[in-house]
Design goal:
single chain, 2 domains, 17% helix, 163 residues, 17 strands, UDP N-Acetylglucosamine Acyltransferase, domain 1, alpha/beta, Rossmann fold
Length: 163
């Protein structure tokens, strides 16, 4: 993909996703964060407030880079309601089978594997090195934590953080 990608959040996960985005051909347009102490997590990048971001026109591409599933859902839905687009981001070193369904705003991190027949919901984080064997289902806004292996047909409920 090419063009600007806005990153909602300005912490470590946001910094990580900014590098993923660039590896996929995106240009980081800005980080969006209301924390008064927030600053862009990378040199040369800008950080704008939520109020400033609300002035951006429809059609912006964005990703929510916040670990908390409740906040991730709230922000994803807020910006989607403004006709912004939340693509799935898949790190170049990850493997996602061609028939896998990835929900809007989902992130598949470095060295993760998502096998055939799996369905990954909206706003999910499949973290570094996770392996989801065939026909797994991960519900919306889950965070599947680093380096875990899930057997075929595993079902993971929504809004959870799985260690």
């Amino acid at each position: 993909m090419t063009g600007d990608l806005l990153i909602v959040g300005a912490g470590g996960h946001a910094r990580k996703l900014s590098y993923y985005a660039e590896a996929l051909g995106w240009r980081v347009g800005a980080f969006i964060d209301d924390d008064p102490a927030a600053r862009a997590p990378r040199p040369g990048a800008s950080c704008v407030s939520m109020a400033d971001a609300l002035a951006f026109p429809p059609g912006q591409h964005f990703i929510v880079a916040i670990g908390d599933p409740v906040a991730r859902r709230r922000l994803l839905e807020r910006f989607q309601a403004m006709a912004w687009v939340a693509p799935a981001l898949v790190h170049p070193s990850a493997y996602v089978a061609p028939d896998v369904v990835l929900g809007a705003g989902t992130v598949v991190c470095a060295h993760a594997v998502v096998e055939t027949g799996s369905v990954i919901g909206v706003g999910v984080i499949v973290d570094i090195g996770v392996m989801l064997d065939h026909n797994c289902v991960v519900a919306m806004y889950s965070h599947v934590k680093t380096a875990h292996v899930y057997p075929p047909g595993t079902r993971i409920g929504g809004h959870g953080e799985l260690y």
